[in-house]
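Q: I'm a student working through a structural biology exercise. My instructor gave each of us a protein and asked us to get a predicted structure, then write a short paragraph describing it. Mine is Pilus assembly protein. I'm not confident about reading structure output yet, so if you can add a plain explanation after the tokens, that would really help. Here is the sequence I was given:
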Amino acid sequence: MAKRAAARRGQALVETALGATVFVTILVFGIYFAEVGALTLKVQEAANFALWEATGHVQHDPRDGEFQRRGAVAQAEAEANRRYRDFDGRSSQGGGAMTVQLAIARARSPQVSCEPGLPGGDPLIAGIRPSDADAGSAALGRAMVIQSPGMSCTASSAMRGARIGRFLEPGFFNVSHRRASALFTVCAAGRASDGSCGGRFSLLLDDWGLAGVAEGRSCALNINNGRRCQNLDYHDWVQRVYQRNGGGGSAGSALAAATRAGAGIDEDQFFMSFRGEEDDYEEDIGASHAGNQRRWEVTPFRVPNGGLNYTVHRDNRWLGGVPH
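A: Happy to help. First, here is the predicted structure for Pilus assembly protein. I'll explain a few features afterward.
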């Protein structure tokens, strides 16, 4: 009986050792796969961060005729690489790439790569290009330089398992632990092919419109690029469209010269006045026009001028609530 009890105790010890070996292996690789999953999500987050970061940069400069500038894409890419150097993203980190070591997984900093363009080129989506506009799109296109319809980004990181020993190799396990923890590439979108990530996230940029405080200010009546206007972006953009569409044409001046009626006036002068709701859609320019009226109205028309008189309530209305 004593011999049988001793044999049973020895069997239990062997079974415990074998079970512990399998359990420790499963535990180690369970931790490793969980860490790889968490790091993979951060790689994907880095690529998406770059896309949304770009939307916060200045996309256009109407005074220079630039829309969807490539610089916004480059700045967003640089910011994403700085912030996700340590996979965190909550604060910028200086310097180049670094190696992050977790309990088991070891990974290099995500490398975010963005391009000022969309996969497959300019998408055939109506309404996203100046050429998709109405009849005046030709002049609008000449007045704007579209550098890119959008952007696309990807991110990648090289990972592997570290701190995995060679216990019970190769006799006990048929496959080496080291092979399961070899270096591999993680992509933000899709799978890597020969260590390269082909999948990308894409986003349209800008809307060829004005935005922000500076581009929403009013513009006093100006002649020939006067500088009383507080919204020079809007003023110069409209003037550029006007000029590149032929301006006034000078037909009246040519007729006056042909009939020897004098030098006439410059018909190509550019007049612009933009007043919003905060100015009640008008400004005081002195007694200088029709009937010595002092009020110049941007949205017609409540002052008596011999024509139609729109007296609709204009506060909090689109374009002043003028019938159309």
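A: Here are two points you could use in your paragraph. The mean pLDDT is 76. The CA atoms of residues 110 and 157 lie 5 Å apart. It's a good idea to check both against the output above yourself.
Q: Great, thank you!
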